Amino acid sequence: MRVPPLASSMLVAPALIASAPPQALSPDLMAVQAHLRGVQTMTADFTQTDRNGRTLTGTLQLKKPGKVRFQYQQGVPLLVVGDGKALTMIDYSVKQVSRWPIGNTPLALLLDPNKDIGRVARTIPSGSPGLILVAGQDPKHREYGSITVAFRRQAGAPGALMLDGWTVLDAQNNRTTVRLSNQRFNGPIDDSAFRWVDPRQQGPRH
Questions:
Q1: What is the pLDDT of residues 71-87, one digit of tens each?
Q2: Can you point out the beta strands (E) in the chain?
């Protein structure tokens, strides 16, 4: 299957974060954990850029536990949906579907409210007091690549932090960056947002 670009940025390393060594909670990690536990729902716009500078845009809807939807811009026949158990990648142009357990993807850090962040991530220097970078890489399997999630300090946001996006570097040093904007937290999102049309049974629409 041709993996959607955003899908590859999220699934470059199954269990990548989950295999990170445990770390005592630093003040920054405590702030990140407070943010993650304070977010029950989120909506945002996203911009995805690959290593060649190609950019796609779309909208994000997130609802804990385990639900997420990445809706690409009009004309891009790709969809990424988490239904609480699995993350599904749908390519409507070729009517193909792939599914992964959400717990085996880096997105588990953002979607599991009970995740022990001290065991799944570590902070790295950001060069800015207003920015916290949280990194994950399996030291036993560096060929899986790495992910870095960016949080910006912002008063009034959950945990006084704003999720800005993430960057994935795969084993071939291909970098994919997802940036968020217009983030809104803890508003109502109906569960119907996390349903999708199976292209193997119906026409190419989503």
A1: 999 999 999 999 988 88
A2: 41-49, 55-63, 67-72, 78-83, 86-91, 96-101, 122-124, 131-136, 146-153, 161-169, 175-185
